[in-house]
Amino acid sequence: MKEDKDTNLFDLLIIFFRWIGRCFNRLFAGIGWCLQLSFQHLVLTIIICALGIAIGIFFSQPERRYYNVEGLAVLNGPSADITKEISKQLEWTLPQTIHSEQNLIQKCGISSEAAKSIKRMETFYAIDNLNDSTIDKIDFNNKHDLTDTLNVRLQNYLYFRFRTKRIDKVSEIEQGLLHYFNNHPTMIEWNKIHQQQLNDAVNMYNQQILYLDSLSKKAYLDDPVHAKLTLHQNSLIIGEQKKQFFHEEISILQKQLRGKQIELVCDSLPLYFPAHLTVNPRAINGRMKTIAIALVAAYALSLLVAAGWRYRKNICNYLLKK
């Protein structure tokens, strides 16, 4: 029985490698056929490939190059889901038409040159993998599993990316995006709620600090002290009575209060870009990349034309056959 199993496995390996060999034979045969067809119609191949290179050079000129512009936006109040829905009103306008350009100009308050330069705009969620409220990656594929409770979407961040061929208009486009989002009624309403929550937190910390401070005054200032005073392990001993210091608790509350006060000052806008929008210096349609793609496409087209010319009689007979 064991020998039969070994024999069957050996036969399967032989069949597999024979299939691999046939695949390589067909691949080399196909490459040989393409080279033969190219040399038989060398002039046609050279002309079409030269045209492809010329087209690649034309579309990769500096004034026709597109660049990715990216930036992380911080959201103060509105969630990433809400902001993404609002941003779709801009994303939908970007298959460029005269109406969409006017719509973009009206909503963002940017010039027509800046609106025409935008080719595509997208937004992506920020993902937290370590459950520490910090960004670990950006979901560029928009395929994050919503049932994943360990790696979650951060609702106070949203990543923006758009393509433009006018990098001198990036600053204007950024101001236009800020104008659109920070003047949107839904964004303003959620920001007001966020501001109120911060104000409530600041008031709560102030009350807690005053409460602890009043306890300290009651314990150490209001009571007459006639006994011997000694200090032991963050506690003041008055006679035989031991009283708790509140310096550490007050210091912690003051630190938390300062954090909330900073948030209150910085979070006055529903959305802002802390590091502004940055331009990727590598063009999407760079010269070498565009020429290579155009050359491959031109060579494939030359093979198609050459094959059509070689088999033109068969094609005509097939088309004329009743």
* Strands, total number: 9
The share of residues in helices is 55-70%
Shape: elongated
Largest sheet: 6 strands, antiparallel
Distance between the termini: 61 Å
Count of all domains: 3
Q: What is the helix/strand order? A: HHEHHHEEEHHEEEHEEHH
Number of helices: 10
Structural class of the secondary structure composition?
alpha+beta
**Beta-strand percentage range:** 15-25%
Low-pLDDT segments, ≥5 res: none
Q: What is the typical, i.e. mean, pLDDT?
A: 81
Radius of gyration from the CA trace? Answer: 35 Å
For the structure shown, list the relevant keywords.
322 residues; alpha+beta; six-stranded antiparallel β-sheet; three-stranded antiparallel β-sheet; 10 helices; 9 strands; elongated
Structure description:
The protein is α+β, with helices and mostly antiparallel strands and 322 residues long. It folds into 3 domains: 2-61 and 285-303, no CATH class; 66-186 and 272-279; 193-266. It is 59% helix and 16% strand. The strands form 2 sheets. Strands 1, 2, 3, 4, 8 and 9 form a 6-stranded antiparallel beta sheet that branches. A hairpin with an 8-residue loop joins strand 2 and strand 3. The radius of gyration is 35 Å and the shape is elongated.
Question: What is the fold's blueprint, element by element?
Answer:
Layout: H1 2-40, H2 42-59, E1 67-75, H3 80-91, H4 98-108, H5 112-117, E2 118-128, E3 137-138, E4 152-164, H6 170-182, H7 185-222, E5 229-232, E6 235-238, E7 241-244, H8 247-266, E8 271-272, E9 278-279, H9 287-310, H10 312-320
Antiparallel strand pairs: 1-4, 1-8, 1-9, 2-3, 2-4, 5-6, 6-7
